[in-house]
Design goal:
The chain has twelve helices and twelve strands. The protein is an alpha/beta fold. The strands form two sheets. Strands 1, 2, 3, 4, 5, 6, 7, 9, 11 and 12 form a ten-stranded mixed β-sheet that branches. A two-stranded antiparallel ribbon has the order 8-10. Helix 9 packs across helix 11.
Length: 296
Amino acid sequence: MSVVVVTYNALPWVGHCLESVRRHEAIVVDHGSSDGTLELVRERFPGVRVIEQENLGLGAGSNAGMRLASGDYFLLLNSDAWALGDAVERLAAFADEHPEAAVVGPKLLNPDGSLQRSVRGFPTLWRLATEYLFLRKLAPRSRAFNAFYGDGFAHDQVREAEFLMGACLLVRREAADTVGLFDEDFFMFSEETDWCYRFRQAGWKVFFYPGAEFVHVGGATTRQNWGPMFREQLRGHLRFLAKHRGAREAERARRLLLASLRLRGIVFPGERGRTYGEAARWLAGARARELLELRG
């Protein structure tokens, strides 16, 4: 078992994260922290291997760690997430019992102990519409309106998933060897979506396993620069659709997202509305193909 944690100004959570996996090989890939993250890691966890590199995205950072890892499994763990009890061992035991599993994800909890929904469905035009036009709010019990979020699944039983939120994923090395590592064209957001899609296309399975629990703070890094990160989230949707559904589908998605964010920019006040408005202007500035060639 090898744990890979990508960090960027990860205080105050990274210590809790690494403490929870202390029994396992751990690799930290840092993308330019300036808040004392590296000093804390080196002082408190001298056995952790630290890689410092340019920030080329979350997938690229995870890839750098996995290339140096020695375990049969990679545990990709966000710096603001940590295992409860023997959750790591439980994930590995489940994977051992299910050799067809490429990816196993645990139950994620918010810091207050409430459920953090992590089962997801692959993006489609309809699913993006249900999310960005708030259609799912109209029918919260409907599968058709909630497929983007795993059909409202209660997260109380083992389930095969399309993909899982990437805060904590156990990945089988053998499976990664067959399909390759993360596609580094995804800077942040949707890299796990693409990876799970490729695993499933190759005949592997993705499982949600509630018998292992992790806490995930959520947004500890992305909130530091949310405007650009929100654009990366949108770009991730477009890149996934362009890669797996074609350029025309990505362009249709751009138009859908543009209309929805213009509406959101009007409806929501303050900083939230301004973020949506800025994202709408970004989407309006070029076609999907050109937006995917830009950075920032």
